[in-house]
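Prompt: May I have another protein with tokenized structure?
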Amino acid sequence: MDKPLAKYIDHTILKPEATKDEVMQVINEAKQYGFASVCVNPYWVELAATELKETDVNVCTVVGFPLGATSTFAKVSETSEALKDGAVEIDMVQNIGTLLSGDEQTVREDIKAVALATHAGNAILKVILENAFLTDEQIKRACELAVEAGADFVKTSTGFAKSGAKAADVRLMRETVGDKLGVKAAGGIHTKAEALAMIEAGASRIGASASIAIVTE
């Protein structure tokens, strides 16, 4: 590893029932442990940005989450609002159904529109593929489309599907994007050993809600 384990981790709270107190707890934990970012739902971005203003912890949020099936216009609008509120990292869900339908142009244009909005705000874009629904060949093609569309990362999962990050998928994603993009592993990572396995497979970022357990084992 080329940096402390905490700096690989997006400390995440995306459950729909998260209260303000719970979000604040995650923000304070991120300050304490020095995680790479806090990943929160869009409503909480402004709070997180205010609380993390004097730190090196980034504010990350999600767009088109968790289904990916909102319109491109909605995703771009959501992105622009999040950037205005202080987000500097955007994790968008690709349009999974259009990929599975073979409509690659729509997938590419959806990502490209969000990438342009994200980069206009000097932020970075991670594209969630939701590998649980994809074959290896579809994962590879989704990665290629993300590269073509100007994304900065590809990401394994939302954490809301039937399965999350798998080291084999991370390895395939890294082999496909090479050093052009980052790879984020997320969903079901609970231990230090699991996190290190993902990094060994090629992950440059880890999304986790069990972040403290991971760095204190």
